[in-house]
Design brief:
With about 190 residues, the protein is α+β, with helices and mostly antiparallel strands. It has helices spanning about 1-10, 35-45, 45-55, 85-95, 120-130, 170-190, and strands at about 15-20, 25-30, 135-140, 145-150.
């Protein structure tokens, strides 16, 4: 569908589309962003873009924002870089200012009491990771521009530590070490 290609180009250049009160198509962009190629694409797909915008649910606060388009499985590869959302850009910028800050890091170690089938637990968590791209997304930067890479298959890097037969002091030491390892891992996976 030609409209998806046009919308990808617009999103890549951070160009927003709106319909004014009379139903006319308007583009919102930084000066110099609307080049002749984009203008020609908008003109040739104008009717489809208007129909598409009219079909979207209207909200007064985000009417000008283009919705995210899903990336088809076949269109992705691990070398493909995707632009960051505005929220991701803000977090990346803050992280660059305060490299060692853990303000936006949520690290946790879980203590499970009782019988646990670790194979079933790992399988369930792996399925969740496969289902949610945000859990398989890594960030990088090149020449000052941040990007994200969505990893297709990611193995769950988890370890079972059985503290049943450990003395209480050993269990506390192991628990503290797990928290430290968890914090380091989540920090490493963020950037």
């Amino acid at each position: 569908m030609a409209i998806n290609r046009v919308l990808k180009q617009l999103r890549h250049k951070n160009i927003q589309l709106i319909l004014d009160e009379q139903g006319n198509l308007k583009a919102i962009a930084e000066k110099g962003t609307l080049d002749d190629v984009i203008k020609a694409e908008l003109k040739s797909n104008k009717a489809d873009l208007i129909d598409w915008l009219k079909s979207l649910p209207q909200s007064s606060s985000d009417a000008h924002l283009l919705p995210l388009l899903p990336i088809a499985q076949g269109e992705r590869n691990e070398e493909q870089r995707y632009p960051l959302s505005h929220a991701q850009q803000r977090l990346w910028f803050v992280n660059q200012l305060e490299k060692d800050s853990t303000a936006y890091t949520i690290a946790a170690a879980s203590k499970i009491i009782g019988n646990v089938n670790s194979e079933v637990l790992f399988s369930a968590v792996s399925k969740i990771v496969r289902r949610h791209e945000s859990l398989r997304t890594h960030f990088g930067h090149l020449d000052g521009d941040a990007y994200q890479i969505i990893v297709e298959d990611s193995e769950l890097d988890a370890k079972v530590v059985d503290l049943v037969n450990s003395p209480v002091n050993d269990a506390k030491v192991v628990e503290q070490r797990l928290q430290i390892v968890s914090q380091k891992r989540s920090r490493k996976n963020l950037i």
